[in-house]
Amino acid sequence: MKTFPTRSSCSLLLCALLCAPFAHAQRQAPALKGPTSKLYLAETKGPTEIMNGDKIYRARQATAFDAPGTVIVTKEEAHNALVYSNGTGLFVDQLTRVEISRFQQEPFKPDYLQQLASRYEPSVSQSNVNLPYGVIGICTSQLISGSSMLYSTPHATVNIRGGKVVIESTPEGTTVDLLEGDLTVRSGDKDVGGQILRPGERAFIPASSGGQPVVITVQPIPREAMPIDDRRVEMACNARKSVTFDIIARRAEEGLDRPGDDPAGGDSGDEAAGAQADNQEIVANPTVPGNPPNQIVVSPDRLPGT
Q1: What is 98-114 written as a DSSP string?
Q2: Is pLDDT larger for residue 215 or for residue 26?
Q3: Of 109, 180, 223, 242, which is most buried with the most CB atoms under 10 A?
């Protein structure tokens, strides 16, 4: 005997069919795309090349440029201190190459407090940075839930969850010094678990030899290396205090001021810099120290009763 659904059952079935596409669309909705992330050059010394796409810039202090796709190369006796638009400071020592393969941010939170050297980043961010050779110092802001920060060398991958870190990449291997915070070091794709470092520890990942398994060595940071590490992360931390970042409405393409060799403001038309689909852009606001109060010194012979 055939049976037929009741009127109420048909109504429920029709409602489910109509609502399903909307529920599926909500589940599949992509995350909001944020404006192109920026780098601010807080300090520069010596010859440095900054490349993005097919353009090469001279490093100039107090300039900002698009972060994705940027390559920084320092020569001998050169160094730079930069700040990502999520508030993380980066010190690049001499004879170093840094390749920012990815750095994305979601739209800034409307209620975030943009303060000098704020503890927290303004929005969720994902960064992947390569260090083929050289030395860098990192001083992070407090990463919020959902953010990730990966630094890779030819020998290791460093997953930084916050703090102060120094990474050195040489042909012999990679050295990771953790001064503060939390991170995990992996020696390759097959190293699933990795090695968690505690503050004050150094990890050394040697270059692979003949396909042999790589063993990560962990020991306390040598006493003689601590002052050098401190100087590198201190410069990264000081850079964070030199700038704040804000969101403004994006200017019309025709109105952009694009000096020939100055990356200030970025090149929004460069595909390597990540053209954005929304109508916002991040701007860097260099901080200006307040003027100290004028102290008037009065000679004792001019005081009453003298």
Answers
A1: EEEEEEEEPPPPTT---
A2: 215
A3: 242
Q: Is residue 109 part of a domain?
A: yes
Looking only at the bridges linking them, the beta strands covering 195-197 and 157-170 are: unpaired
Which helix (H) or strand (E) element contains residue 151? strand 148-152
pLDDT tens, position by position, 131-147: 999 999 999 978 888 99
* Short-list 178, 150, 146, CA closest to 164: 178
Assigned domain for 134 exists: yes
Q: Give the pLDDT of residue 112.
A: 56
At residue 270, does pLDDT exceed 80?
no
CB 280 within 8 A of CB 107: yes
Domain around 110: 38-246
The residue written with tokens 């005081």 in the block is: 303
**272: in domain:** no
Phi then psi dihedrals of residue 36, to 5 deg: -60, 125
Confidence check: pLDDT of 287 > 70 = yes
